[in-house]
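Field: COMPLEX_INPUT
Field: COMPONENT_COUNT = two
Field: RESIDUE_TOTAL = 722
Field: MODE = joint
Values follow.
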Amino acid sequence: MRAERLFRVLGLVDPALVEEAAKVQGRRKPWTRWAAMAACLALVISLGWLVTGGFRGYGMSGGAASGSSGNDGGAPGDSSGAGASGGAEGGRSFMSYAGPVMPLATAEDPAGLTAERTVAWDFAPGAYPDGEPRQWGAEVTDAYLLHNGTEEDIAVTALYPFTGSLSDLAAVRPRAAVDGEAVETRLYAGPYAGGFQSTYGADIPDTMNLAPPDGWAAYKALLESGEYLEKALGEYPVLDIPAVAYEFSDFAAPHGEHRAATQAVSFDLDPEKTAVLTYGFNGCEWDGTFRRYSYFVPDGVRRESELKLLIVLGEDIGNYTLQGYQDGGCEAGEEIEGVSCTVRRSETTLDAVLDRLCRYYAEERYARERGEGAFDAIPFPLYRGAVAELLAQYGSLSGTPMDRYGDGRLDDMLQEAAFQDRVLYLAFPVSVPAGGSAEVTCALWKEPSYDFACSGSGNGDLQGYDLAARLGSGLAFTRQSAILENWENVEITGQNFGFDPENGVNAVELSLEQEHYYLEIRPRGQ
Amino acid sequence: MGKVTGEEAETVEDGQIIELYWNRDQQAVRETDGKYGKLLHSIAWNLLHSREDSEECVNDTYLRAWEAIPPARPGAFRTWLGQITRNLSLDRWKSRRAEKRCGGAEVLLGELEDCLPAPAGRARTVEDGELAELLSAFLRGLSREGRVMFLRRYWYGESVAEVADFLGCGEGKVKSSLFRSRKALREYLEKEGIAV
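Field: COMPLEX_OUTPUT
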């Protein structure tokens, strides 16, 4: 990549110039960023009433004011350093934590049912899209024998939790079977499972950075109270809020003369009465009541969105000014002629806007980034709901917005809703006859936890797998066991299962008291 | 957040720290961290926007320094460390990008594409050292303010807002200057007949 080479070679320029750039300082002036942020905060508080109708309560309780994830335990957002897949119970910390394999649960009280569980990890090399058969991840078969000790049939909705993002679904969605027959499943998605953190801990208390769940303890804190599951099964936020949408289209600019020709729209608003969200805009300036939003005029070459919306919540903005500039700086003296567009104003609702934007992202942007048909594995209602949830819980509609989303730029939320880690649930019916049993099997490909190859940690070839024994499940387990298959392909480098396959121990009984098991392996011959 | 300062705690001379490395004294790493840790964290953060990744890259920088000295005896120690952190951070960013966890480097590289000369048959490919010399010459030809803006953005990886804040000017001015400098660099490389 040529830009990358240029970046690296720039690192080799005369050190005196680099030193000069570190030390030459201009005349400082009071900057308005914090004032703008404060104004923004006041605005979202004043708009808080807008999202109460039909809202299922995220971020609205008094305890949710911190930067943590919205789960009561708060562990994902804690600045506890690198991932701790094993936590106090042992195991290595991995830079990318894949989450544990979790136990089957039920939507209803499972009284009368007992369960025997057998989890098998199969380390047979998989076949990957690049055609190279190599060991990456494991095929996991999580099997349950449910016994009904009562004199009446018991019908429940089984819930099988698994970790991942919506964009991972094609790879990680489990297949469920009851008594050997594949069953149709319904998918539910919980909210973003992580939190937000400051760049450098408590010294600078911002919430600009995502803090994905970094270990077993994070998932334990997230799931053990049952509230996360309730949210996953509940309704998404209803954002039936009146909105005025300004849509920009029919772009024209003297691209031959100005490669970064920019269209700016500026106006004044009362921050106490109006909030603005954008999609497809590149620049934003705030100064008191003045706002200027700008975008690079689409030239058919750049990959930027050609859908450009400015969404006004609360009091409409009234008159606005359009002006073309040479570039995104929008500096006085750099105005240019020939920049034009059509602006269409429509009265709508925020939900209608989100419907449109989510469709656009799914059909146009996601496909462009990931390939045609890439969105097919994602149920659209889940994605649409996740966007609304993110906006309501952490965006500028929240009572406690995160800095990451505080500028109202919907582009970020539309993208991150697809890629953020969460716990998803497969739901399917299971009937267990009186005095009888039913066999439930969930099979999935499980990504490992790992260190990044370029990290220099020395553990780039290790893969970590965690097992949650009872977390989030109300089932009465009478037995749990674990099996390794195709173990010859891997070397075990750490575990607390008790496997010793070289000596014939590739199946072990698990303690019913222990919550967490871990397994770390290194593929052989890779 | 990602601000770069030239005001490290000047407690130990660079030469003394380098001597500690030569003596295989692990105090070398602690002194390096004390004096330049903040700077290196800033550089890594600006490219990665991830606290954990930034910490890893800075730690790896110390490891590289430990492995390189001796035999190396870098003249501009601060810049030398910064170069290592930049390269490690870029490597990490590429790895992260593969995992769809992008940081700030994507934007920086996107902007630098403006500087790339159009492919031309007569353009010659040069070694990194020669290209760095040409870039230095180009930078010396810029106004001091333009040069500082360019390097704070593309060497230290600061955001436009941070550059503006440091220099006490508006973001628009920084953006315009960067745009002009990128365009000028492209024209300079094209004029020199250099392929990148």
